Amino acid sequence: MTNQEIQNVIETWSENLECTEEASQYLNVTVPKEELYNICKKLKDTAELDFDFLFCLTGMDWGIELGVIYHLESINKNHCVVIKVKTEGRENPVLDSVCDIWRTAEFHEMEVYDFFGIKFNNHPNLKRLFLPPEWEGFPLRKDYIDEANMIIK
Hints:
The chain is an alpha/beta fold and 153 residues long. It has a single domain, classed as Beta Polymerase, domain 2, CATH 3.30.460. It has 3 helices and 7 strands, in the order αββαββββαβ. The strands form 2 sheets. Strands 1-2-5-4-3 form a 5-stranded mixed β-sheet. A two-stranded parallel ribbon has the order 6-7. The longest helix has 12 residues. The protein is elongated.
């Protein structure tokens, strides 16, 4: 399917989706956080789309909001899409987990939690993955200050 054909299908699901191709070869779809899980489930379960492979899940710090970018592929249909979702603010960032849709998300959601502090509802084992449990803060946030390694001039 072309990006336009994918967009035509996806846009029927919600009036709240924002689709762009930007400078990417993939269709980019911004999804409200409240609709993330349902949209992702449809992306996988809709036979003509068949997005069966989550090949990248990345945390983002956009300044005011945090968020996640999901890169999905259909192995059988040979097409891709990028899903973007933002949290509401930085104080208590929460999104729904998609690890029961794509099992690979389980590990990546733990990584995003570890480095950005985004919590994932219904994640089966959300915990720090790389940093020790006593670590304070989230080092990939733009406002993180690493006092232990600060250079004083």
